[in-house]
Amino acid sequence: MASKKIVLLHNAMIVTVDQDKRVFRNGAIVVEGDKIAAVGQSREILHDFSASADEILDLQGRVLLPGFINTHVHTSQQLGRGIADDVDLMTWLHERIWPYEANMTEEDSFISTLLCGIELIHSGVTCFAEAGGQHVSGMARAVKLLGIRACLTQSTMDSGEGLPEKWGIHSTDYCIQSQKELFKKHHDTAEGRIRVWLGLRQIMNATDRLLLETRDLANKLKTGIHMHVAEIPYENQLVVNTREVDHGTVTYLEKIGLLQNNLLAAHSVWVNDSEIGFLSKAGVKVSHCPAAAMRMLGFAPIKEMLDSGICVSLGTDGAPSNNRMSIVDEMYLASLINKGREAHTKGATDPTALPAEVILNLVTVNGAKSVLWDNEIGSLEVGKKADMIIVNPFSWSMVPVHDHISSLVYCMRTENIDSVMCNGQWIMKDRKILTINEEEVISLAKRASSELLKRAGITIPSRMNFL
Q1: Closest CA to 452 of 87, 91, 101
Q2: Is 43 exposed, middle or buried (0-12, 13-18, 19+ CB in 10 A)?
Q3: What are the tens digits of pLDDT across the range 243-286?
Q4: What single-letter DSSP state applies at residue 295?
Q5: Does position 215 have pLDDT exceeding 70, yes or no?
Q6: Partners of 57 in the beta sheet?
Q7: Are 419 and 64 in contact (CB under 8 A)?
Q8: Segment 112-161, tens digit of pLDDT
């Protein structure tokens, strides 16, 4: 049996994000195969491991962090960047996104996920939770090539208005069976980097039978459920009108027993205090997508959720609802938005709301808990998977660095992320992705996007007065 490659990185500022919040000013880490074998002071690690290391890297004071986790992203929507700007959510869905998705091929999804993956990796993401698309097999092919880690989900709907004729409405039996087959085909593949979750697009497109059978199947398969929850007031009102509850989606999901600790609820903007209590008691995870929420949904009560013990993480959402797939940008926005929200709700800003260390947790340890993978990722600890990023703080965007945690949240930009390792393998080094040809993917994506929009009959009104 071949011995595992040993990589030693030293002379780094290591932010472990472990339970003890350890930070090594001159730290070193040892990777053996796909796992972390040692973390500590450079002097001690070099003494113990330099003789056996296959690769030794002097990071010259750069920052070493756990890989970031994006807990809500539609990778299949990357080819639709810019097709639905400045429109309300229902127009966004019925006139742009659903026609777009209905006309996608598996090859489109493959190319779209590759393109999205490029942006995710450049922003330090080593793991993402797919929010739901039509061609999971295409996504899986891309994830295998990219070298990234993912929880993949099919967009599942068995009812509702506005669905494209090309789709039709799938039966509940089809929705459940297709996901069983995807789980069997793709779960725990790509050296264990791919997990398959179950998807519920939203309550407005799900019968009670689909909700309950998805819950039961997820428990049987020991996997997660990814669902858009309480995005807009219209959704809550529709639930009140059709499902006989006094508030909305979260109240109804609690009533039927769908709230549980393997549910990842995206957005969850329109919830009241009682519903925050329901989410907390059930152990539901919430993915906060600041840019997308501010664009179409509103202010989510994130501080109240965190104060109640809810595990909140960060997501970018898809390109048509954000345009930027940078979790680095979301960190910055999450802090500012939630500080400013205090002025909206209480009459004065609260500069202490969601401080830098909390924001960093949202994209690391909380992200790992949200995707049910915290036993292996989310912090730099012995025995965990070697998913980590190197940040170069020695540029105009971050210098001077007085407080590393603060600078990572408030100053860091995507350009500062130098290298990315996932599962013990370098997938980006010196800002160059090693697993795929970026230029080739970009060329394929431009052509595929143009052809897809033509098939879907989507035209984007021009804002320019061409001469």
Answers
A1: 101
A2: exposed
A3: 989 999 999 999 999 999 999 999 999 999 999 999 999 999 99
A4: I
A5: yes
A6: 9
A7: no
A8: 999 999 999 999 999 999 999 989 999 999 999 999 999 999 999 999 88
Can you tell me the distance from the alpha carbon of 404 to that of 54, in angstroms, rounded to the nearest whole number? 30
Distances from the Cα of 47 to the Cα of 22, 140, 293, angstroms: 21, 41, 50
User: Does residue 287 sit in helix, strand or coil?
Assistant: strand
Give the whole-number percent of the chain exceeding pLDDT 70: 98
Print burial letters for 388-399: b (CB count within 10 Å at least 16), e (below 16).
Answer: bbbbbbeeeebe
User: For 371-377, what is the mean pLDDT?
Assistant: 98
Maximum Cα interatomic distance, the chain, rounded to a whole number of Å: 69
Paired with 125 in beta bridges are 68
Closest CA to 289 of 236, 326, 249: 326
Q: Is the distance from CB of 206 to CB of 220 less than 8 angstroms? A: no
Of these ranges, 163-177, 222-236, 448-462, the one predicted with the greatest mean pLDDT is 222-236
Q: Would you state the pLDDT for residue 464?
A: 76
CA distance 262 to 242: 26
Q: Per the structure block, which two tokens stand in for 18? A: 């472990």
144 burial type by CB count under 10 A (0-12 exposed, 13-18 middle, 19+ buried): middle
DSSP secondary structure letter of residue 189: B
Average of per-residue pLDDT across 428-445: 98
Asked, as a colleague might, if the bond just before 400 is cis with ω within 30 of 0, I would say yes
Given a cut of 90, is residue 50 above it in pLDDT?
yes
Helix (H/G/I), strand (E/B), else coil: 448: helix
CA distance 271 to 285: 14
State the Cα–Cα distance between residues 172 and 349, nearest whole angstrom.
Answer: 47
**DSSP character at residue 93:** I
DSSP character at residue 397: T
CA distance readout (Å), 456 to 99, 112, 124, 321? 6, 16, 33, 18
Strands 6-15 and 23-32: antiparallel
Any idea which residue has 């006989």 for tokens? 244
Q: CA-CA distances (angstroms) from residue 390 to 15, 125, 260, 387, 438?
A: 11, 12, 35, 11, 20
Report the C-alpha gap between 25 and 14 in whole angstroms: 7
User: How much is the pLDDT for 346?
Assistant: 67
- Classified as helix, coil or strand, 274 is helix
pTM confidence score = 0.96
Which residue's structure tokens are 């506005």?
162
What is the phi/psi pair of residue 26, to 5°? -125, 80
